[in-house]
Amino acid sequence: MRSRFVFVALACLTVSMASVHGAFRSSQRSPLSAFYLAAQIKQPPVGAASAIPPPDRAIRINVDNSTPQVGQNVAITVTFPKGFERCGSQYQLSFGDNESTAIGAGLLYHQYRKEGRYFLTIEQITLTLGRNSGVFDIRLAKLCSGLQPPKRRTINVQPPLPTPTPVNVPSPKPSPTPFAPSPSPSPAVTSSLSPSPTPTSSSTPSPTPNTFRSPGGISGNSHGTDGSFSSPTPTSGSGISWRDIQENWWYLLLVVPIVPFVGYRAFKRGFAPRPRASFHPDTGQPTVNEGNQPLSIDACVVLRPDIAAGRYEIFSEGKLVKNIRRHHV
Amino acid sequence: MSNPSISLRQVFEAPQGADQQKSSDGWTKFQSKIADELKGVKTAALPDTAGKLAELFDIPIPNILLASWQKADALQSLLEESKKNPEEIMELELAEHTITSEHRPRIELKIHNATVKNLELNMQLAFKLEGFILKIQEGAITEVRTGKCEVKGKVDYEGETLLEKKLSTIELPGSISFHQRRED
After folding, report:
1. Sheet with B97-103, edge to edge strand ranges
2. Is residue A266 part of a domain?
3. Which of B45, B74, B100 has the CB atom closest to A286's CB atom?
4. With an 8 Å Cβ cutoff, are A323 and B78 in contact?
5. A131-132/A135-136 β-pairing
6. How confident is the model at residue B48 (pLDDT cuts 50, 70, 90)?
7. What is residue B134's predicted lDDT score, i.e. its pLDDT?
8. pLDDT at residue B115 is higher than 60
9. Residue A324 domain-assigned?
10. Domain CATH code at residue A67
């Protein structure tokens, strides 16, 4: 009884500490804390600049030329994370010149008619959270709610040159270099107006397979590079890495006291000596009730007063043996 | 030994062998109450409590009758007399009489030879016999020709009656032989 109370107390302590920890770290999602954050799925605001999406949940925009000329085709590649198609959400890409188009994953082209600075933004049109064939899927909900639209991309459209370069008609096939004017796909940090102050190491491979806490490079590559998003961070979606354990070691403090108790219970159930039951019948002590028969007739004794002394006995004992027959072998 | 065909199992309508389906309601309640008592000991290895419980009632009724007759004062003198005349066979016609018997079967739970629970039952029986004839030879009761036998009984545990058998007639074999070792 007492051990059960201790177990319940430890469980309550674990839940309460996890709740407190979750309140402080609600903006960070680690695999270890995912079990209690799963119930708090929030749809991030579209275009939110503060939250930095993990690389596997980010919608990526690649622009082949961030400084095109007026009338020049700009190749825009939108990449959605794996599994996006199951979300059922629809997005539209605004080119910044009052034109927009519904998008899916793939390549599209746009021409700007006027020079100036334009912002490429992605807006969410519809959202279907976690519905998969009518069944709510918590994993899918987490994936879809975690989709982060990219930062708006800036395109500085230059005035047309006096001698306009002939523009090829874009082929619908994503040819490797359909547009000659693009000088190079090298990162153009200056073309981005990303508010992120950490434009470093976008191409640094993350040493851990963690998709949530890939250190450092996520914020840089989403803004500083020219939409390359070529972070080679291996994504696994779920799983606990050694780094997570190191960062969230205090969880073990909650689990460790429970482990001996669970082990004790398992030992007691599986290996503790079991009592053995033995049944002992008893042959008893039977007795014949000799002479305990009740009187079969009522008796009324009337004593004469002139008798000075006398003795009158009534034997109510019945004989057990009524008759005996003897014969010789 | 006597013919063990009829025992207290029949009196209290305990199931025969592994056939637990044919047990009476009274026996089922008795069994569940005993199981409740044994639940106090956790992880008790009681794979076949029901079958073992019925074994507590495997006491042949003829043995009870025989033990009671052998202790009766009226018969002891005749048994002594028969012992002195081994060639004589005596047939005793018994009057209507009653036999009471008290038994204390128990269930013991042990862990490494240490008793952790001892569940002792108190079983009380009363027989009413009529028309019984005993055959005595060489100082021993060798055979019984049975008559009418009525029995009632109850099983108590800690003052509570768990099982009760109201007075009713039981069928005994017409003749029961006892093969006792004759004392020289």
Report:
1. A287-288, B97-103, B122-130, B148-157, B160-169
2. no
3. B100
4. no
5. antiparallel
6. low
7. 93
8. yes
9. no
10. 2.60.40.10
Enumerate the β-bridge partners of residue B137.
B89, B140
Selection from A97, A49, A94, A36 nearest residue A71 by Cα: A97
| pLDDT one-digit tens code per residue, A187-225 | 433 333 344 444 443 444 444 333 333 333 333 333 333
- Its domain, for residue A154, covers 42-161
Dmax (CA) of chain B: 61
Per-residue tokens: B37: 């008592």
> Which amino acid makes up residue B83?
K
B12, B38, B43, B61, best to mutate vs chain A, most A CBs in 10 Å: B43
Q: pTM for the full model?
A: 0.46
Write the DSSP string, B30-55: HHHHHHHHHTTSTT-B-TTHHHHHHH
The packing angle between helices B61-71 and B73-84, to 10°, is 80
| Model ipTM value | 0.85
For A69, list phi and psi in degrees, rounded to 5: -100, 165
Domain assignment of residue A284, yes or no: no
- Tens of pLDDT, residue by residue over A150-182, are 777 888 888 887 655 555 555 444 444 444 444
Number of domains in chain A: 1
Nearest residue, CB atoms, B68 vs list A275, A280, A286: A286
Give, for B23, the enclosing helix (H) or strand (E): none
- Rounded distance, CA A189 to CA B146, Å? 116
> Which residue of A273, A284, A325 is in closest CB contact with B91?
A325
* A315 has a chain B CB within 8 A of its CB: no
Residues across chain A:
329
Mean pLDDT over each residue of chain A, to the nearest integer: 64
pLDDT band at A58 (very low <50, low <70, confident <90, very high): confident
* A156 part of a folded domain: yes
**Cα B21 to Cα A191, B26, B28, distances in angstroms:** 87, 13, 10
Question: Which residue is listed with tokens 């109370």?
Answer: A5
A275 contacts on B by Cβ (under 8 Å): 41, 43-45, 109-111, 116-117
